[in-house]
Amino acid sequence: MAARPQFENHDQQEVKSTTCYMCACRCGIDVTLEGGEIRFIQGNPDHPVNKGVLCAKGNAGIMKQKSPAKLRQPMIRKAGTERGAGEFEPISWEDALELLTGRLRKIRATDPKRLAFFTGRDQMQALTGLWATQFGTINWAAHGGFCSVNMAAGGLYTTGQSFWEFGDPDWDHAKYFMMWGVAEDHASNPIKIGLEKLKSRGAKFVAINPVRTGYQAIADEWVGIRPGTDGLLALAFVHVLLKTENFDWDYLIRYTNSSQLVIDAPGTSSHGLMLRDEAGEILTHDMESDALVAWDAATRSDTARPSLFGEFESADGVRVKTVMTLVAEKYLSDDYAPAAVAERCGVEAVTIERLALEMAEVAFKESITIETPWTDWTGRRHERFIGRPVAMHAMRGVSAHSNGFQSCRAIHLVQMLLGAVDAPGSHLAKPPYPKHIAPPIKPAREMAPNTPLKSPPLGFPMGPEDLAIDADGKPLRIDKAYSWEAPIAAHGLMHMVITNAVNADPYEIDTLILFMANMGWNSSMNTGEVQEMLRMKDEHGDYRIPFIVTSDAFHSEMVNFSDLVLPDTTYLERFDTISMLDRPISEPHAACDAIRQPIVDIDRDVRSWQEVLIDIGTRLGFPALVKEDGSAKFTGYQDFITRWEKAPGIGFLAGWRGEDGESHMRGAPNTDQWQRYIDNGCFFEHKLPPEQRYYRFANRDYLAWAKSVGFNAEDGPIVMEIYSETLQKFRLAGQGIYDGPCPTDPEDRQRLIDHFDPLPDWYVPLEEQQVDNSTYRFHAVNQRPMFMYHSWDSQNAWLRQIMTKNYLYMNRARGVSMGIPDLSWVWVESHHGKIRCQIKLMEGCNPDTVWTWNAIGKQKGTWGLSKDAPESNEGFLMNHLISELLPADQGKSITNSDPVTGQAAWYDLKVAITLAAPGETGVWPVFEEVQPPPGQPTSPDVLRYHTHVAVNIERPFKDALTEGSLNSRRNQR
Amino acid sequence: MKLGLVIDLDTCVGCHACAVACKQWNASGTTGPLSDTDPYGAEPSGVWFNRIRNYEVDTHPDSKTVNVPMSCMHCEEAACVTVCPTGASWKREDGIVLVDQSKCMGCNLCAWACPYGARELDEESGVMKKCTLCVDRIDDQSLPESQRQPACVLTCPTSARLFGDFDDPDSEVSRAVAERGGVAQMPELGYAPVNRYLPPRDKPQVEVSDDTRAEAQSTGGAAGLIGKWMKRQRDAFDRLGSRDGGDA
Amino acid sequence: MHPALSVIFFTVTAGSGYGLLILLALARPLGLLPKISPDQIVFTGIFGLVLVTAGLLSSTLHLANPKNAWRSFTRFRTSWLSREAVFAVAFYPLSLAWLITEWATGNTFMSGLLGVLSAVLAVVVFVCTAMIYASLKTIRQWHSRLVPVLFVLLALVVGALLLMAMAAINDLPLGRLGMVTLVLVILAAVFKAMYFVNIGKPAGPTINSALNFTQASVRLLDVGHSGGTFHTREFGHQVARARLYWARILFFVLLCALPLLVLLLVFTSSSTTLFWVVLAAVSAYAGVFVERWLFFAEARHVVNLYHGAQQT
Ligand SMILES: Nc1nc2c(c(=O)[nH]1)N[C@H]1C(S)=C(S)[C@@H](COP(=O)(O)OP(=O)(O)OC[C@H]3O[C@@H](n4cnc5c(=O)[nH]c(N)nc54)[C@H](O)[C@@H]3O)O[C@H]1N2
Ligand SMILES: Nc1nc2c(c(=O)[nH]1)N[C@H]1C(S)=C(S)[C@@H](COP(=O)(O)OP(=O)(O)OC[C@H]3O[C@@H](n4cnc5c(=O)[nH]c(N)nc54)[C@H](O)[C@@H]3O)O[C@H]1N2
Ligand code: SF4
Ligand code: SF4
Ligand code: SF4
Ligand code: SF4
Ligand code: SF4
Ligand SMILES: [Mo]
């Protein structure tokens, strides 16, 4: 073989690691640099999240860095021009920050809630939340309210862990995996890695999804469910499991509240609450002593035998039932029989029954064990972990419905009956989860000028008394989170901020700061009108939202509607932390956090939002950031991260703490911490010892450790709540008989009665309840394309080659029966609006469902794209059809969200589809063209990206001249 | 040697990671750059060596979606090589089919001869380009052994791509093909493609036992069942101190 | 396949040139134009070479990197394109030698021999050209024995009519040329008709066989790129059925019907009317042009199966 050329001059290359941020999965990457340019980005093989692999987005980081849409300098809306006209002029950082702090100082000194600070797809909520707390405004939240709070809250109020990013299926042991409504999710690479593991082990993978693409493509069984009916399907599973006596007695009694006693006194204020003794301990019935005893004490006693079923009477004559009795009473009803739900769900009854039985078979007949002794919270030693190898994962197909919270609880109920939460082979929590139900943080309510909040703005209400409402029951927050409209809005309702602020409902605000959220486009429902609202003025000619500040890295649609634009760095240009105080990157068996470090030099006048927040906070004199004398405590973001402590020894980064850098998880600040992270590939991983890896809700060693490192406030057991007393309290409030705040508005009361069933429940999604379903026949949902992240990847020259426009997909047979040919243009109409788009017929689609890829459509002129770019002429957003308010004319405008959590109900959308007239082609509506910001370079016509001159492999001329057929060469070999 | 790829259609989710990794690596690779025209305009189009397509097999509700990545098959009877008039296209001893960029005249004939759409003309460079099997990774002795793999293989999140020597019966690729019945695409054309596709696996079946299936017998509906369970719960659940969820 | 104008022009024009040169060389030996003079041979031969050269030059227009065109002589062993190039170049000295000899020595054995050798080489060159297409297994419409036959036949038809035009200009009496032309036209029409029948039969791989899913229907869901690629531009070219149909009719009219009418005219009237013969030659040339356009437009590369075509 001829000598090989030297392809790369490795001496002139440098490899630096950091954390990917082409999406929120946060994979570890190794970036090879050559002459200051990026040669190659690859997965870090040692990284706990991605183990060396990278997705399409991550692989396209070079083109994100090359995007012509990068903002270049701070900008202010030109005096005298209208908001939305997109006329900006450059402003220096100093002037911009002075201008902003001047305004904020006034707000903070008078009425801090007039600042609303909302953040989108960020991963620094710990920092932004701290900032808002220090500022003293409760009007802060991140994007969870429009994203997946139903999954987060559904889990945290039920099992103490959850789907979304807080847990993972046990890919290594599961034998049966059921995936509900997931196209991609945050664990983008881990899910793919996991699915391959499952498949190579011969585990069965069932996908419940109206559409068969992506993950569902490789599912062993596809259940093409009708959108919005997952909760019902799950409860039908429950019905079958109960009917066939397939539930884990032992697990239910030990780890859930199924043997706890619920008061049965209809019409009284204690109805449905747990029976407690004087000490406040919840009671259970012990068969051995035939007495009502404290559940906690009973579970610690070796001799007690709690009744799972039964009706009892307390000494003072209160009638009670065990939770499990209520479960059986409710779900054994024929309403939940497979045959009764089949049509509604679009799944055959025999299939429903078979799936339930298959899960039971695998859970109970194919149980597994991990031969590791462990100790439970009572101190009992167990020789091994018993596993029910049925795992589940669910996401926005369940959460983006107005019944998502309860549907999510219904899925958790199936898991609990099977004994399949945090057991080997099932769904595993990722530290810092599991947490106690609910995590003991109450939403902040009180604000005072120039004073930090006493607790963070977001928390977990345990009853009506924890709501953020005033004495009249009016919402305290601008997004009306924690009001009667959305009592358990644990992540806020970002999608309501603009509408509410413009309507001064509940009040006016002064300044809206948006960070990393494209609220002028794909992240708002009702995009067209939201753009109008952003421009809307009052009778004095002043903007309804007086001042809008946007931190973005790119020329997004939202930038156009801002008064002040603070340009951020890209993910390859900044220091950043992915903290355990925040959204974890942990794996089930390891607590992990990570950092970013600058990989390439900044070539524009931009600053990282992290630095800017610290800077502004210091200028405003936040107690956490300034000393007594008003001087800065920290030299900047890095110094802040290193030295700030939430509690003694606990800070943003858990690794290499202590002066010598040898204390992990907890320890004194270490000035060398950043470097230690960099030396370790920019991540930290604390692997849990084998005995702490399962049953963590009841695992003494784990619970003790979790408390010691600040994950949980106490080390008692985390008792899973099949029955939610919290929900029942709200229901009592709805009935007007709660011992505490009750709503007065009949609408509010009815909503609580209808949707706050303390047991997992299902109801028809709200929009579907209110529109004419014979007109709006189709469900309309979205999927995320695996190769693009929301709005921000259309600027990516490589990724957009894969998709520049989207179709509306429809079941082929249904399309044919309606006379809708493939690729025809159609009008899609909802109760709220209409759009025109192009149909594509396909097989793997529920017949009552149409769908499209999310966020492909763009406003003309944004994102560095030419005005004839397909994204703005052939791509469309479904958002125009989705109203942020429910259709019913109830006099009062009610958010189009889950009535429990306020989760935006994107996928409740119902539409009518009609063929467009001949000649009606192209998407509609098309929005007016946006001007490029000052200084934006013209986008190149040709890209020939490379970092060095290619080293060609020369075929020897002689060979070219003389070589005969291929066969002859092969025969020589 | 007979180097090539195995692609697992049972696990490929169609994520395009391999396609973009390929684009990324090869942009500065031995045949780079891979030009992109109109990158921010109406018709963005560029040179890619690996493209992913999705198909639907059968009709609703029995349809299956199959994701099929395709790149050069490094055919043993590579007509793309034999038709090439300039000698730019060639097949190395290890089986890799390459285009010597300095010899190509951009006549497209090799692309016409390729049944698999593996060759793309770089209109800006005027020469034909194609998958090099990442020869500049697998041949680069200064890379650690684990890195001497094609970019697409290293990046694939579902491990649906394997690289190796099909002449070696013990290689990972040969074993995978033998175990899973790997097939070639359009063998009837006689190109003897080296790359193999692993067909979707047989679906795992869960046999539900009679015991699991058996419905609880009771009269009186839910109340009857609950009554029965109340009576039976002594047997169903022993003392909390016993068994302990672990010690049989 | 995308019908590249430069390639169509090349094969049609160079083909006409070769056709003309072949028949010119055989004009005396076969008695096509028994009275043809050496000057007329030389003059017509130069015209033929101009056609060939124009065609060859045009063929380089579709090269993306013509500076490496010289390398196309290197792969004579396996590449028909390389062979074409080598023979096409070799044709020049041989044909020039023939014409010079003809010019210098007139009707001699040597000039006759060189002429026949040139004719043989011209056939070889053009068969090589045809084989570039006919050897491709990827395009079943091309992968046919009829292709080289048709390439040569059509070249000869145009060549024959050009030669007739030459005869008409010079008022040369037609020997067997008229008859030979008639036969060529009829053969071309018959073979092309056979070709159309052949490619009309379903054959070759289908989307099912290409993807190894043969038990059920297969449909493309997403091709993986919203916009065009090299492959869609090169292979994805689709022409409406109706246009193809009319193009076929046009071909038969231009290449067969009109020339046959003219030939009839020629046979019935004693003198050859220049205008009609030139018209026939131009018509045939246009007919071949249409044929060659169809040759591309009707060719379906197998790669289209992966892009969603159900069959080729
Ligand atoms: N590549 C990429 N990855 C991303 C993102 C991205 O934009 N791009 N975004 C990130 C964000 S912010 C989020 S929130 C996650 C979301 O991740 P996913 O939860 O995967 O979100 P969606 O893409 O909305 O997928 C929803 C899926 O549910 C299905 N579905 C819709 N309605 C129903 C229903 O009623 N029942 C069932 N069973 N299924 C239904 C849809 O067909 C779709 O497959 O992804 C994150 N990861
Ligand atoms: N119809 C429909 N609408 C939806 C959804 C749906 O499924 N269907 N999904 C919803 C969900 S779950 C979510 S999470 C939202 C997405 O919510 P968003 O967070 O609004 O989504 P992105 O489009 O990712 O926009 C984020 C903004 O961040 C900017 N950005 C990117 N990188 C940086 C950076 O490094 N720094 C700064 N400062 N800015 C940066 C981008 O330019 C962009 O303007 O969309 C929601 N909207
Ligand atoms: S999933 Fe992809 S985009 Fe997201 S962090 Fe990982 S590599 Fe980056
Ligand atoms: S990276 Fe792997 S899973 Fe993704 S498309 Fe390529 S082969 Fe398929
Ligand atoms: S796949 Fe195409 S380019 Fe690759 S060796 Fe085979 S014929 Fe040649
Ligand atoms: S395009 Fe280049 S490599 Fe392909 S056949 Fe022509 S000269 Fe050879
Ligand atoms: S082997 Fe290399 S060149 Fe070939 S498809 Fe994979 S990444 Fe691309
Ligand atoms: Mo989200």
Topology:
The complex is a heterotrimer of chains A (973), B (248) and C (312).
Chain A: E1 13-19, E2 28-34, E3 37-43, H1 56-59, H2 61-65, E4 75-77, E5 88-90, H3 93-110, E6 115-119, H4 125-135, E7 140-141, H5 149-156, E8 167-169, E9 176-180, H6 188-201, E10 204-208, H7 214-217, E11 221-223, H8 230-243, H9 249-255, E12 261-263, E13 283-286, E14 291-294, H10 295-300, E15 311-313, E16 319-322, H11 323-331, H12 338-345, H13 349-365, E17 368-370, E18 374-375, E19 381-382, E20 385-387, E21 390-394, H14 396-399, H15 404-417, E22 427-429, H16 497-502, E23 511-515, H17 527-535, E24 547-552, E25 564-567, E26 576-578, E27 590-596, H18 609-619, H19 637-643, H20 673-679, E28 683-687, H21 700-708, H22 725-735, H23 746-755, H24 766-770, E29 778-783, H25 799-802, E30 808-811, H26 812-817, E31 825-829, E32 834-842, E33 849-853, H27 870-873, E34 910-915, E35 942-943, H28 957-962, H29 966-972
Parallel strand pairs in A: 6-7, 6-23, 9-10, 9-21, 10-11, 23-24, 24-25, 29-33, 30-32
Antiparallel strand pairs in A: 1-2, 2-3, 4-5, 4-25, 8-22, 12-16, 13-14, 15-16, 17-20, 18-19, 26-27, 27-28, 29-34, 30-33, 31-32, 31-34
Helix pairs in contact in A: 4-18, 5-15, 8-12, 8-13, 8-15, 12-13, 22-23
Chain B: E1 3-8, H1 17-27, E2 36-37, E3 45-46, E4 51-57, E5 64-70, H2 79-82, E6 89-91, E7 97-99, H3 109-113, E8 119-122, E9 127-130, H4 135-138, H5 151-155, E10 161-165, H6 172-180, E11 196-198, H7 210-213, H8 221-236
Parallel strand pairs in B: 1-11
Antiparallel strand pairs in B: 1-10, 2-3, 4-5, 6-7, 8-9
Chain C: H1 5-27, H2 38-61, H3 80-105, H4 109-134, H5 146-169, H6 177-200, H7 207-211, E1 218-222, H8 230-235, H9 241-268, H10 274-297, H11 303-306
The structure holds ligand MGD (2 copies), iron/sulfur cluster (SF4) (5 copies) and molybdenum atom (MO).
